[in-house]
Amino acid sequence: MNLSTDYLGLKLRTPFVIGASPFCESTAVARQLQDGGAGALVMRSLFEEQIDAESRALVHHLETPADSNPEALSYFPQFSEYLLSPERYLGQIADLKRALTIPVIASLNGTRPGGWTDYARRFEQAGADAIELNLYQLVTDAATTADSVESEMVETVRQVVRSVQVPVAVKISPFHTSPAQFVTALEGAGAKGVVLFNRFYQPDFNIEEMVVSPQLALSDRSELLLRLRWLAIISPQMRGSLAATGGVHTTTDVVKALLAGAHTVQLVSVLLRHGPRFLTTLVNGLQDWLREHEYESLDQLRGAMSHRRCPDPAAFERANYIRILQSWRV
Ligand SMILES: Cc1cc2nc3c(=O)[nH]c(=O)nc-3n(C[C@H](O)[C@H](O)[C@H](O)COP(=O)(O)O)c2cc1C
After folding, report:
1. Ligand 1 contact via 21 beta carbon (within 6 Å)
2. Which of 17-21, 79-83, 89-93, 241-245 is the least confident region?
3. N or C: which end of the chain has fewer CB within 10 A?
4. Within its chain, how far is the Cα of 142 from the centroid?
């Protein structure tokens, strides 16, 4: 069964992409995932703050005076707390490229245009086949307008795209007023694809110690539904590629994401929970499902349940919300 798919102009042998995560850290594990059927691997992110911290650390080292504005950045990890220095990150790209034959996608994580985006070019020089630009942002200032935030994001994408030849995918959050319009603007800035969606790790309250405690919980399947809706709405309006990330745990989830219009599914939580070997179960599961339902390729399946092609487009819209609320009786 042919599972090949086009993603960002790259030919992948399967739609299973290892999402940005610690799985890139060992070339042995990465190779195991490749052998298990991965079509590509996304590395964990190098952060704008981390690159800036390194520059500041260098300036500090060279010029010695105290940091000009330590307070503003004191909530971010210090340079030494990041797992990989920017230089080591470039080395890891080269290591993975040597060990793997599938595409290696390096991940750059930031929000505003700036010198840090130059790392996209350095990723490319180190051998990355594509860049995943993660625009994770949480705006807390009431004076900041949605328009100014999105304009900066689009400008950041433009800056990254201009600096490289390899394709750029953009990983976004679901919290945009008009996600389809935003995706169109990202494509206008040169993005070759979009990754839906970033997960927000909601901090909890510890009410005995009166502190806000950050936590990292792995995803569950219910998180896929938000992705399915927006994949279905955005896919008919987009020229480029779509990746689903968040809540893909079973073969059924993979099929649903493809039906909604995804070119690839990214996996992290499911493999952290069950181990890298579980990938083969998902690959075999997809092959069996396609065979049983007499599909010959993923192209036949992709987007069959999108907003434009599904039998009941209203199911994705406000009408469905009203219908659902009216359906409850006590
Ligand atoms: C331990 C861990 C580390 C992660 N690191 C990154 C990262 O560096 N950059 C990024 O864009 N996403 C990162 N993610 C998010 C994943 O790439 C993915 O989008 C998210 O976990 C949702 O997919 P899932 O439901 O398959 O886990 C990380 C997730 C986990 C669990």
Report:
1. yes
2. 79-83
3. C
4. 27
Ligand 1 binding pocket includes 246 (Cβ within 6 Å): yes
pLDDT tens-digit readout, 225-257: 999 999 999 999 999 999 999 999 999 999 999
Summarised one tens digit per residue, pLDDT across range 145-175 is 999 999 999 999 999 999 999 999 999 999 9
Helix (H) or strand (E) holding 223: none
d(CA 196, CA 244): 5
Ligand 1 atom at minimal distance to the Cα of residue 268: 26
Residue 308's domain is classified under what CATH number?
Answer: 3.20.20.70
In total, how many domains does the chain have? 1
d(CA 137, CA 189): 19
Specify the ligand 1 atom closest to the Cα of 245: 23
**What is the span of the domain harbouring residue 132?**
5-326
CA angle 284/11/173 to nearest 5° reads 85
Q: Is the CB of 268 under 6 A from ligand 1?
A: yes
277 φ/ψ angles, rounded to the nearest 5 degrees: -65, -25
pLDDT exceeds 80 at position 63: no
Which pLDDT score is estimated for 252? 98
For ligand 1, whether the C-beta of 107 sits within 6 Å is: yes
Name the token pair of 299: 């192209």
Instruction: Give, for ligand 1, the residue of 16, 17, 18, 21 to mutate: max count of ligand atoms closer than 8 Å to Cβ.
Output: 21
Task: Give the N- to C-terminal CA distance of the chain in Å, as an integer.
Answer: 49
How far CA 180 is from CA of 114, 131, 234, in Å, comes to: 26, 21, 5
Q: Any idea of the CA torsion for 279, 285, 288, 294, to the nearest 10 degrees?
A: -110
Q: Is the CB of 44 under 6 A from ligand 1?
A: yes
Compute the distance from residue 137 Cα to the ligand 1 centre, in Å.
15
How far away, in angstroms, is 20 Cα from ligand 1 center?
5
Count the Cβ atoms, other than its own, within 10 Å of residue 27. Answer: 15
Report whether 96 contacts 65 (CB < 8 A): no
